[in-house]
From TrEMBL:
The chain crosses the membrane at residues 37-59, 71-89, 95-116, 137-156, 168-191, 212-234, 254-271, 278-295, 301-325, 337-357, 363-382. This is Sugar MFS transporter. SUPFAM superfamilies: MFS general substrate transporter. It comes from Methylophilus aquaticus. CDD domains: MFS_FucP_like. The keyword ATP-binding does not apply. Belongs to the major facilitator superfamily. FHS transporter (TC 2.A.1.7) family. InterPro entries: Glc/Gal_transptr_bac, MFS, MFS_trans_sf, MFS_TsgA-like. It is a multi-pass membrane protein. Keywords: Cell inner membrane, Cell membrane, Membrane, Sugar transport, Transmembrane, Transmembrane helix, Transport. It comes from the Bacteria.
Length: 387
């Protein structure tokens, strides 16, 4: 049962990563189609990740009522609906409808996140929770690695001939079909053994008193905000530096996310050998150094150092997540997961602010915001080293 549950969750994490990373292709695509500024294009990520801030806690309550498995089935179905809504957005050629479709799609992903993250943490030994969640996140990164190639071939390749953003219809219809199939299969698998035995009946004010959880919430906000900011504007960053077409720049986004994938597979072992907080500090400080170097560089050095930040991102989410919930009592994981998932709204706020800075100062200087985010994460790791 343990292995079956973990295998099912790895498929779930793969699809979450794949769908989320396609936004990095939608940003330059819709920016060109609708002639958007950087700030306007950042609304794609804003609407997608705003769903985390608005729906995570309500969905955590839903999970308490229906359980992990049914919650994930509903999440897949809701995400499929969001994919299908791209069709009327294309027919009416309205940017606002694209944003609405992304919000619905993201709501499904939020429900999957709220159910999956604590589930991975509790289905095995507590002392290996960080390692186990890192492995699941590695498959999430596999999805983010494949998505840019998929998007470049099926979406960006038709950019010069596209007028109404029709390039997104068939790719998202295909994704909707896959999600529906997964939902049907998942609904028929017996995974009752992965449901938490402890009731989550503790009051919210008791959960909120856990300082480590609140600092972890800020950490998730900072991490997702920094990661999404870089991923969202990396295509435009490469195009601006090397003066290449979007289809040539998109594969470099895959290198960024691919670095996270490789780092997560490595992290399965490093997190067992070293204190998770110490590994977190190292990765965060390396990210700060790489971004600062890129901001002061040009050409391949600037692009390569920025892409390497993906390797630093690898273990951050699972490590911050497990550090955030480690002080919670048995049965409080669902509420804690809801709060931590809410913090993914950082992927809405930080990219938007980065886009506003980019419109005024240029992309090179706008990446100072991710630097601040990673600096906080380094401090968070240092704090968790203290007795």
């Amino acid at each position: 049962m343990y292995k079956k549950a973990l295998a099912s969750l790895t498929v779930l994490f793969f699809m979450m990563g794949f769908i989320t990373c396609l936004n990095d292709i939608l940003v330059p695509y819709l920016k060109d189609i609708f002639a958007l500024t950087y700030a306007q294009a950042a609304l794609i990520q804003f609407c997608f990740f705003a769903a985390y801030g608005l729906t995570s806690i309500p969905f955590s309550k839903l999970i308490e009522q229906v359980g992990y498995q049914k919650g994930m089935v509903i999440g897949f179905a809701l995400a499929a609906l969001g994919c299908l809504l791209f069709y009327p957005a294309v027919l009416l050629h309205t940017y606002a409808l694209f944003l609405a479709a992304l919000f619905v799609l993201a709501s499904g992903i939020v429900l999957l996140q709220v159910a999956a993250n604590p589930c991975v943490s509790i289905i095995g030994p507590k002392e290996t929770a960080s390692s186990r969640l890192t492995m699941a996140q590695a498959f999430n990164s596999l999805g983010t690695f494949i998505a840019p190639f998929f998007g470049a071939y099926f979406i960006l390749s038709g950019l010069t001939n596209s007028v109404y953003a029709e390039g997104v219809v068939y790719p998202y219809f295909l994704i909707a079909g896959v999600l529906i199939v997964i939902a049907l299969v998942l609904s028929r698998i017996n995974l009752s053994g992965m449901e938490s035995a402890a009731a989550d009946d503790s009051p919210w004010d008791e959960v909120l008193k856990e300082k480590g959880l609140l600092l972890g919430v800020i950490g998730i906000f900072a991490y997702v905000g920094a990661e999404v900011s870089i991923g969202s504007f990396l295509v435009n960053y490469v195009m601006e530096i090397n003066h290449v077409a979007a289809t040539q720049a998109a594969p470099l986004v895959a290198l960024y996310w691919g670095g996270a994938m490789i780092g997560r597979f490595i992290g399965i072992f490093t997190l067992k050998q070293f204190a998770p907080a110490r590994v977190l500090i190292t990765h965060a400080l390396l990210a700060v150094g790489l971004i600062l170097f890129s901001m002061q560089s040009t050409g391949s050095l600037a692009i390569g150092s920025m892409a390497l930040v993906g390797l630093c991102n690898s273990i951050m989410f699972p490590t911050i997540f497990t550090l955030g919930i480690k002080g919670l009592k048995a049965g409080q994981e669902k509420k804690g997961s809801g709060l931590l998932a809410t913090a993914i709204v950082g992927g809405a706020v930080v990219p938007l602010l980065t886009g506003l800075l980019a419109d005024r100062l240029g992309l090179h200087h706008a990446f100072v915001l991710p630097v601040i985010c990673y600096a906080y994460i380094a401090w968070l790791g240092w704090r968790n080293l203290k007795p």
